[in-house]
Amino acid sequence: MKPKILLVDDEPATLIGLTRYLSKAGYTVEEASCLAEAQEAITSHRFHAVILDLILPDGNGIELIRDLRETYPDTAIVVITGAGDIPTAVEAMRRGADNFLTKPINLAELDVFLQKSLELGTLRRRDSTFQRFKKKVNPYFSVNSPMKEVEKLAILAAENDSPVLLQGETGTGKGVLARWIHEQSSRCSGPFVEVNCSSLRGELLASELFGHVKGAFTSAIQDKQGLIEVADGGTLFLDEISDMDLAVQAQFLKVIEEKCYRRLGEVKVRRSDFRLICATNKNLQEETQQGKFREDLYFRINIFPISIPPLRERLEDLTGIIQDILADLGTSQCQIIPDVIKYLRNYLWPGNIRELRNVLERALILARNNPLTLEYFPNLEASVYPISSNKGNIKDLERLEGEHIKDVINNFGGDKRKAAEALRVSRATLYRKIKKYKQPL
Q1: Helices (H) and strands (E) in the chain, counts
Q2: What is the rounded average pLDDT of the residues 24-46?
Q3: At how many degrees (to 10) do helices 416-423 and 397-411 cross?
Q4: What is the mean pLDDT of residues 219-245?
Q5: CATH node for 4-132
Q6: H or E segment at 176?
Q7: Selecting from 1.25.40, 1.10.4030, 3.30.1380, 1.10.10, what CATH number does the domain 389-437 have?
Q8: Which of 228-232, 304-308, 385-389 shows the lowest mean pLDDT across its residues?
Q9: Strand partners, 99
Q10: Residues 59-97: b if buried by 16+ CB within 10 A, e if exposed
């Protein structure tokens, strides 16, 4: 991806010469001849660097430096000024500029300064990302389990910018995989912005995504940057996209297709170059058939789908996942007896890896640095989710799941609503599995 440069100077000859040189050097250049044009360009696009003449027809460029540093702290700023304005250039450096050059400009020197400034911007961006996410949790990719295929697809997803749709039950690690794809991609130095569409509705979700201007609605007391804008140059992760309101879906479809959007209450068109990853625990094809999800949006985000298997279908990974979780909790040396592993294998884990992590964290609190024994794993609802020892053949997990579904339905006297609640799946998912395993209704 070519670095985007905003060139701000009021001399036409300088604009023409620098634009021609920088374009040949591999940059994408946009021009502005005054502060007003520069500010308009900055609100519409995200730039990797700004080359700024301080003396402009409508004011001093130092004010723009302050605004840039507050809004886009990782943008590189190179100041150009006349030879007699060195004190002003020093003040610009104090305000946040990375470098300054005096006129007439040595083009080769400008290229070197620009590259150094861009490197500083990248370091600032990486440091900001590191500070936000010091503690990383990576997916557990084993050699032989279904997750090996997921890893292959995730690597391919990281190598391109196409939208990715992560599908899987709640707690399977869709958010962790989304972050991993971002970190392996060419956008790893950019922001990873996560939005949970199930926690916000209607206008609130639209405001969070697109931003708003002061007075756009009753509680809009000041301008607000949207997360689409924040994700510029990085990845936008929409978790539980199936819960996005239809009206917001229509608005967002246009954003995906054109990478353009408007803040609520604003007529100005803005742009954001983001990579899209979506996740859902529902069957979006069924949702479209029921009119709950737009078919055109489904087709647009379903370019590269990745399905993450539930934990019960990858029980061969259980020991490795437990070791990973214990290491992440800072207790990698904790002793866990073999009977506990066997006991945990005989549980279907309806909450998947998230539930396993919670169970292990609770056990560590109860154990108080002692070895983890069975007494520290109460309330796993073994009466509802048992797998008997004579059915423990990992190679026949589909048969086990079908038989277990039948047992749970029988436990509740055929009440499929209660059975779905006990299994912690939707009734639509339960009926789909009943059909898949040909269990009698």
Answers
A1: 18, 16
A2: 86
A3: 130
A4: 88
A5: 3.40.50.2300
A6: helix 174-184
A7: 1.10.10
A8: 385-389
A9: 78
A10: eebbebbeebeeebebbbbbbbbeeebeebbebbeebeb
User: Residue 362, exposed/middle/buried by CB under 10 A (0-12, 13-18, 19+)?
Assistant: middle
Rounded mean pLDDT of the chain?
83
Q: Which of 135-139, 205-209, 297-301, 398-402 has the highest mean pLDDT?
A: 297-301
Site of tokens 């073999």: 338
> CB neighbours (10 Å) of residue 210?
26
Closest residue by Cα to residue 51 from 94, 11, 24: 11
> Angle at which helices 397-411 and 427-437 pack, to 10 degrees?
120
Quick one: which of 145, 115, 137, 102 has its CA closest to 14? 102
Task: List phi, psi (to 5°) of 408.
Answer: -65, -40
Q: Which residues contact 265 (CB under 8 A, 6 or more apart)?
A: 212, 213, 215, 216, 217, 220
Phi, psi (5° rounding) for residue 347?
A: -125, 140
Biggest alpha carbon–alpha carbon distance for the chain: 90
Tokens of 111: 């290229």
CA distance 375 to 369: 14
Least confident of 75-79, 127-131, 305-309: 127-131
Residue type, 47: F
End-to-end CA distance of the chain: 55
Question: Which CATH homologous superfamily contains domain 147-307?
Answer: P-loop containing nucleotide triphosphate hydrolases (3.40.50.300)
Please give the Cα distance from 171 to 198 (Å, whole number): 15
The one-character DSSP state at 2 is: P
Q: What is the CA radius of gyration of the chain?
A: 27
pTM score, whole prediction: 0.63
